[in-house]
Amino acid sequence: MAQDTAKADIGVYGLGTMGSALALNLADNGFNVAVTNRETSWINDFIKEDTDLAGQLTGHTDLADFIQAIKTPRTILFMIPSGKPMDMMIETVKPLLSEGDTIIDGGNADFNETRRRSAELDGTGLHFVGMGVSGGEDGARHGPSMMVGGTDHSWTQLKPMAEAIAAKFEGTPCVAHVGSDGAGHFVKTVHNGIEYADMQMIAEIYGLLRDQGGQDPVQIGQMFDRWAKGPLSSYLIEISGAALQSVDSKTGKPMVDVILDKAGQKGTGGWTLIEALKLGQSANAIEAAVGARSWSSEKDMRMAAEPLLDKGALNVDLPSEDDLENAMLAGRILGHAQGFRILSAASEEFEWSLDMAQIAEIWRAGCIIRSALLDEFASAFRAELPFDHLILAPVMRIRLAGSILGLRRVVAASVLTGQPVPALSAALAWHDSMALGRGTANMIQSQRDFFGAHGFERLDMDGKHHGDWNDV
Ligand code: 6PG
């Protein structure tokens, strides 16, 4: 084990994929890092693995030694499974810590738990930070995007290290203290909700071309490669293009063709929806994406249903590549706009004063949803924004005006051919609902008052009213 020659700037507990990568990134940027892990055998292996950085990494098999090796006030990053393990960890380390020390949970945690943990530590002199880290293993190692919650005190300690290891967009670090207590984990949760919607829309376009266009993975992958050079330029489009052109070495078949069509999920997409609903918001494109993953797991039922359910589908021409690209562009704008609406509502509810432009800015590099559009979103939020609504930003109205017909054509063709496009069609339905000054909720109100005397507001008079309903 390496000698503890220097006091560590930070401690990293948890040497799984993300923890190891962040520890190496910190060491690479000149910080001294104390590391430890529940399974102590991992510690030596980890330190031995990177001999160049070994001088800056000190491994500790004993928890008290690990804590002692970190400069005070201490900053300790925990990269462990969320939930109970984090609560147990806090209880274990608490007696070993001193006033001013900060415990950081860098996993994907439920922000409600982060708020609770922050409140529980309030008054103890210890600080708790929920930090969203995006970008997967490669991001963590070479530059993630990070969304930091917690106190100003903790941010002051963490900032120089976080800014050094973060991804940079034109030199600006993609990390920020977005708000107090659970704000960091909340922003990360919504990031993932947007990620789900974007991934689902890409999958829907792939499905339309595969099932209705008879295209092979390479053709579709090459199309995504073309899109990656235009307004859809983004990490998710890039990896989708590359994934579709990858070959399974075991069979020689396209990789995607040997993968079972059942998608996993760890919960952040669902949390986005739960919180949106609690805040009185609806994010139907994100909901569609989460729902589609759940439906995907009903593989046996779908296989049985396919010959039993008559779709009544028609043959229609496939939309042009331009229409498909525009559909993805409009869908992406609408999916993000729904995510930002949730963030606005949460900011108000929890008094976080979230800065939407800043959030868009720290998502421009390092994270999974990084894209060219995020820079446009950031500028849109920095400018005057009617109703604080991304889709009303002048630059986004122009983008939507140029792309919405493509989305309409793609959804129409999919509906007629029986091709499911739940996220794209949800995004369009939301757009059209927002664009309808006089909606249809007057009909809902009439039904509510008819059967339940719930009352309604009138267009021509103030106050609550009841209708003069005919008998049935
Ligand atoms: C990121 C990712 C990352 C991860 C999650 C969600 O920003 O780096 O969002 O946190 O992909 O595990 O993934 P699933 O819910 O799809 O498993």
Write the layout of secondary structure elements.
Elements: E1 10-13, H1 17-28, E2 33-36, H2 41-49, E3 57-59, H3 63-68, E4 75-78, H4 84-93, E5 102-105, H5 111-121, E6 127-134, H6 136-142, E7 145-148, H7 152-165, E8 168-169, E9 172-173, E10 175-177, H8 183-211, H9 217-227, H10 235-244, H11 268-278, H12 284-296, H13 299-305, H14 321-350, H15 356-362, H16 372-382, H17 394-417, H18 422-434, H19 441-452, E11 456-457, E12 464-465
Parallel strand pairs: 1-2, 1-4, 2-3, 4-5, 5-6, 7-10
Antiparallel strand pairs: 6-7, 8-9, 11-12
Bound molecules: 6-phosphogluconic acid (6PG).
Between the first and last Cα atoms, what is the distance in angstroms? 84 Å
The strand line-up of the biggest sheet is: 3-2-1-4-5-6-7-10
Taken from the alpha-carbon principal axes, the silhouette is globular
Question: With helices defined by DSSP (H or I, 4 residues minimum), what is the helix count?
Answer: 19
**CATH architecture classification name of the largest domain:** Orthogonal Bundle
CATH homology-level superfamily of the largest domain? N-(1-d-carboxylethyl)-l-norvaline Dehydrogenase, domain 2
Strand content: 5-15%
Structural class: alpha/beta
Q: How many distinct beta strands?
A: 12
Bound molecules: 6-phosphogluconic acid
Look up the CATH topology of the largest domain: N-(1-d-carboxylethyl)-l-norvaline Dehydrogenase, domain 2
Mean pLDDT: 96
Largest beta-sheet characterization: 8 strands, mixed
Tally of separate domains: 3
Helix content estimate: 40-55%
